[in-house]
Amino acid sequence: MANKMLKFVDLARAMPDKRTVDTRRQDFGEIYEEYDPIAAKAQASRCSQCGVPFCQVHCPLHNNIPDWLMLTAEGRLREAYEMSQSTNNFPEICGRICPQDRLCEGNCVIEQAGHGTVTIGSVEKYITDTAWEEGWVEPVKPVKERGESIGIVGAGPAGLAAAEELRRKGYQAHVYDRYDRVGGLMIYGIPNFKLEKEIVQRRSDLLERGGVQFHLNSDVGGALSFAELRERHDAVLIATGVYKARDIKVPGIGLDNVFAAMDFLTASNRKGLGDSVPAFDDGTLNAAGKSVVVIGGGDTAMDCVRTAVRQGAKAVRCLYRRDRKNMPGSQREVANAEEEGVEFVWLSAPEAVLGDGKAEALRAQRVHLGMPDATGRQTPQILEGSSFSVEADIVIKALGFDPEDLPRLFDTPGLEVTRWGTVKTDFSTLMTNLDGVFAAGDIVRGASLVVWAVRDGRDAAEQIHRYLQTKPAAAAVAAE
CATH 3.50.50.60 in the chain, residues? Predict the structure, then answer.
């Protein structure tokens, strides 16, 4: 380690080359180039191999980051990949879309010392992309097949991670999803410039080769009742995510050309996948030549503004009621958006959507940040008489997501939910109040990150395994 690592004193932090702004505004390709092997090894060698790896501590999956950085620096890439995938079902996806600046990289020891963080996410992406190229990525092969089957509702990251872990243990994993493709928000919500769809597709193909059975276009709670699903399987995992768009109550919000973020993003992603999208083709959900205003400050808002730029919008503005340092979204994404020509209107709150039948402008008010609230964040306070208007042919609401009413949707009124509408589970077992029904991911914790969904899916798989292992014993005791 002495001659391979701790190079941060000699080597500066260097991300992979980024495509020029003019080039990347013209298409939906990923904006970062691949590391070449020499650069990847050099950047990995900057790791200080510290005794308490805060990068690992602050990773939801607790990835063995210092270990696979050292293996990369030593040129032992296959071992680095095996180490990386041992704790993460989708390392190439997390390497692309995780907000590393808020998680592992943001807590890197050498970053705190002023030397610039190790480029953990880019190295993680490089390792796994190389593994795919070299044919090292293989489907799971259970040592022994088990007869029990598990029904998983939702083909997003939580459901897919759980399915793979359950297959690893030999269970028959059946994944049901209402959409026509596997991936959830990874396929229809996240744009290609952050996560190209073939990356998700090859992962779902791998899972299918490993024995995971997908049932797409499945309307659980409709044509397929939740009660029937429970009868089919020995256990059920609810991993639906949260898709219900939060709304805002201001005059004019119901005008034409005011859309929820997922409607806008899904139309764009479907078009990129080659689907027929009438609402895009007729210009309704196409930002070309229009002034676009996005309300919100999270990663979904960043996806919307950057998508609008690539669609050829005349102007793109992002209104957020707090300032830059208080944005919930990744600062890296904000910087990329600014480079691409997005205008951020900080400390602004929407007051009304103006127009005759359809949106023509958005009137907003200036905001002052007051005292911190119970969460520690400063409270936005409207400044009287500060109204101003911006042109808006399209207004996009990117205010976050809430859970759908699952007890009603699944026609299962006995399913307990929290006061926020998320599914209520036992903290230790992840089981709901219904025997054999578990829940994981955003439908439990609320709208969050893909990496947290992967963690929750892995944990749920382990708890389902424990439940099924003890169930026969419990039945035998009851029979006696």
Answer: 149-242+403-479, 256-400
pLDDT of residue 229: 97
Q: At what angle do helices 331-339 and 299-310 cross, to 10 degrees?
A: 20
Instruction: Locate 385 and state its tokens.
Output: 């008489």
pLDDT-based confidence at residue 2 (cuts at 50, 70, 90): very low
Inter-CA distances, 143 with 11, 208, 265, Å: 45, 17, 41
**Given the structure tokens 């991911």, which residue do they identify?**
441
Whole-prediction pTM value?
0.94
Topology of the domain covering 149-242+403-479: FAD/NAD(P)-binding domain (3.50.50)
Q: Residue 296's closest CA among 337, 338, 248?
A: 248
Question: pLDDT of 269-296, one tens digit each?
Answer: 999 999 999 999 999 999 999 999 999 9
Distance CA 141, CA 149 (A): 16
Long-range CB contacts for residues 404-409, cutoff 8 Å, separation at least 24? 404/240, 404/242, 404/243, 404/244, 406/238, 406/240, 406/443, 409/221
List C-alpha distances in Å: 348 to 302, 316, 333, 384.
16, 15, 20, 12
To the nearest 10°, the Cα dihedral for 195, 296, 158, 93? Answer: 20
Looking at the domain 256-400, which fold is it? FAD/NAD(P)-binding domain (3.50.50)
Give the position of tokens 């505004």. 25
Distance CA 72, CA 4 (A): 10
Cα-to-chain-centroid distance, residue 38:
30
> Both tokens of residue 212?
């995971």
With a CB cutoff of 8 Å and minimum separation 6, the contacts of 239 are 152, 153, 154, 156, 158, 159, 162, 439, 440, 441, 443, 453, 456, 457, 460
The CATH homologous superfamily to which domain 7-134 belongs is Alpha-helical ferredoxin (1.10.1060.10)
What sign does the dihedral 218-224-225-227 (CA atoms) show? negative
Task: Enumerate the H helices of 14-147 as residue ranges.
Answer: 21-24, 37-44, 54-57, 65-73, 77-85, 91-97, 109-112, 120-134
CB atoms within 10 A of CB 179: 16
Q: What is the DSSP letter of 16?
A: P
Give the mean model confidence (pLDDT) for residues 106-124.
94
Amino acid in the structure at residue 255: L
Residue type, 114: G
Please state the φ and ψ torsions of residue 463, each to the nearest 5 degrees. Answer: -70, -35
Give yes or no for a contact between 266 and 185, defined as CB atoms under 8 angstroms apart: no
CB 379 within 8 A of CB 367: no
